Give the backbone structure.
Amino acid sequence: MKSVTHRCIHQFMLLVVMAFPALTSAKSVPAFGTWIDCNFAPLLVSLPGTTTDVVTVGITQDFSGTLDGTYTGSERDVLNADGSATFRGGGIFTGTVAGRSGTASFRYEWIAPAGADGYATWVLEGLTGSLDGVQGQGTFAGSSADFSDACPAGKFSGTYEGTVEAR
C-alpha cells in the first residue's frame, strides 16, 4: 500500500510541476493588421445652449491580421466648435486573436485636440471560447474611405498595432 500511495503522490507532484508554469505564465505577442468599418444609423443631437454636437452611430468593423474577425458595436462622438473631438466606442468582437477563437469585448477611444493630430487606443478582453482570458491593447490610425447607402455615416479604414497576452 505504501508503494502505491508513494507512486500516486509522486505522479501528482510531477503533474503539478508540469502544469504550474502554464497556469502562471502569460505569452505576450505583437498584434498588428488592418481594419475597415461601416458607420450606420447616425443620430445627431445638438446640446442646447452649447456649440457641441453629439453623434451616435452603429458600427461594424472587419479586422485582418492578428485580430481576424468582426466587431459590432456603437460609437459616441462629441464634436466641439473649436475643432476638438472625442470618439468612444464599444461592443463585441467575434473571431480569432493570435489563433484563439471566441468572443471578446472591444472598446476604443480617439481624442483629437483642436488643431492637432488625434490619438487612438483600443482594449480587448476575451469573454468566450479560447479567447477567455486573452487581453490586448494598442493604438490605431485611420482615415475616411467614402460613404454608401449601407454606410451613410461613412466608411473608414486603417491599421492597428499593439500587444495581445494569452493566459
Notes: The helical segments are 2-24. The domain at 26-166 is CATH 2.40.350.10 (AOC barrel-like). The longest helix spans residues 2-24.
